[in-house]
Amino acid sequence: MGNKPPKSSSPALPGEPPKTTLFKQEPDGTTYRIPSLIYISDCQTLLAFAEKRRTPRDCDAKILVMRRGKQQTGSVQWSPAQELTAACLPGYRTMNPCPVYERQSQTLFLFFICVLDNVTEGHQICTGKNKARLCYVTSKDTGQSWSNVTDLTENVIGHEIRKWATFAVGPGHGIQMKNGRLIIPAYVYYIHYRCFSFHLPLTVRPHALAFYSDDCGITWQRGEQIYFKSCECEMEEIVDQENRSYLYCNARSTQGHRVESWSENGGTAFDAPHFAPMLVEPCHGCQGSVLGFAAPQQSSDEKPNGGLTSNTKTWLLYSHPTSRRTRKDLGIYLNKSPLCSTGWGKPWIIHHGPSGYSDLTRCEEDKLFACLMECGKRSETEEIAFVEFRLRDLVNSQ
Fold first, then answer.
1. Lowest mean per-residue pLDDT among 10-19, 63-72, 112-121, 231-240
2. Based on the number of CB atoms within 10 Å of its own CB, is 58 exposed (0-12), middle (13-18) or buried (19 or more)?
3. What does the H/E/C string look like for 345-373?
4. How far apart are the first and last CA of the chain?
5. Is 382 left (phi over 0), alpha (psi -120 to 50) or beta?
6. Smaller CB count within 10 Å for the chain: N or C?
7. What's the CA angle centered on 166, arms 164 and 171, to 5 degrees?
C-alpha cells in the first residue's frame, strides 16, 4: 500500500458521507470513467476499476486501471493506480470492467469488452457491424497478477453475432448465486430487421441479458434477452420467505424510468419486465448499480417499509442520479420488499451536484457498504470517488 494518505475530494456537504478521490481527471485531458467495485472477503480487499481515456469520450477509451484497498486503522488505504496491460487485445480499446469472484476456486474473473480502435458504438449500430469482443482475465491473488486474456466471442455468441450490432457487459459487477452460478450482466443492440437490398439494419433495439457459468467459470453460456428495450444493467439474487431464488435485473432505459425484470431460472430467461415507478431516469438514461444483502432480523411486531411486510429474506440497494433532467445528485435507494415494484424508498443523496455511473459493494463489517461513483463540481467526469456508509445512515436519512 502507498505510504501517502489518499487524496480526498472537496469536503462533503452536510448529510453526505466523506469521499476519497481514487481517479481524477488530469490537466492533459486524461479522464477516468466507468467505475467498478468489488470486495473480496477472503482477503478483506477492495478492488476499484475504471477506464482510462484520452478524453471523456467513449471512443477515446484506452485501458483499464485498478487500485487495491485495505482497511487500516479505521480507514481504507489505497495502493497507487496500475494499468491492467493483461486485459487488452492488440488494436482494440478495453472498456466496461465487470468483475466477479468465484468462491470455490478463489478466482477473480474480470470481464470486459474490447472494441476495435476508433470505431464508435454509434457506427456499429448504424452499420450493423459489431466490432466488440467478449473477454476476461483471471487472478488467483486478488489482482496482484493476471492471466492472459481469454476471448469468448466465438464460443459463447458464435453465429448469433451477425444479429448483434454491438454489445457490452455491465458495467459494474457480476455476482455468484447461492447455487454457484456465476452471472455477468450484459446488453446487446439487437438487429430485429435489416434492409436486404443494402444489408443495413432498419430496426436496432437494446436488450439486457446475462452470461452465466455453472462450472466455476470453465465454460460460459448466454441467456435470452429481456424483450423490453433495456440497456446497461446489473443483477442480484433475491431469496423469498420460502427460500425460492430469483435473479433480479435492473436496467437503464430512455423511457423515463428504470426497467426491472426477474428470472426464476438464474438468468436463462427473464419474465415480466416493467418500468419501476419509483426509479427515474434522465432523458438519455444513465447506468446504475444494484446490490442485495441479507435482511436484518425484525421483531415480530415491526413492519418494515412503512407498514409493508417484507416478502423476501433479501433487501436491495440501488445507486443512480436522482434528477429526471440531467445526471446529478447521486442517491442511494433501499428496497425492503424487492419483489414489489413499489418497494423502493426515497433516495439518500450522497453527492449533490454532477454525478454519473456508480457501483456498490458490501464490505466485511455487518451492514457496511461502499460506493464508487463518477462525480464533480462542474461535470461528472472530473473524478471517481469512493464512499463508505452504513445501513443506519440510509435509514436515518428517510
1. 10-19
2. middle
3. CCCEEEEEEEEEEEEEEECCCCCEEEEEE
4. 37
5. alpha
6. C
7. 125
d(CA 18, CA 37): 17
The set of cell numbers assigned to 29 is 485531458
Domains of the chain: 24-295+306-397 (2.120.10.10)
pLDDT digits 0-9 by tens, 262-294: 999 999 999 989 999 999 999 899 999 999 999
Catalytic residue, from 101, 189, 333, 357: name it.
Answer: 357
Rounded to an integer, what distance in angstroms lies between the CA atom of residue 95 and that of residue 380? 18
pTM of the model: 0.92
Question: Given 281, 374, 383, 388, which residue is catalytic?
Answer: 374
Contact 245, 235 (CB under 8 A): no
Q: Model confidence over 129-153: pLDDT tens digits?
A: 999 999 999 999 999 999 999 999 9
- Average pLDDT of the segment spanning 37-48: 94
Catalytic residue among 58, 83, 224, 393: 58
In whole angstroms, give the CA distance from residue 203 to residue 193. Answer: 5
Catalytic residue check, 357? yes
116-153 b/e (C-beta count within 10 Å ≥ 16 → b): beebebeebbeebbbbbbbbbbbbeebbeebeebeebb
* Neighbouring C-beta atoms of residue 388, cutoff 10 Å: 20
Amino acid at 151: D
Active site residue 374: yes
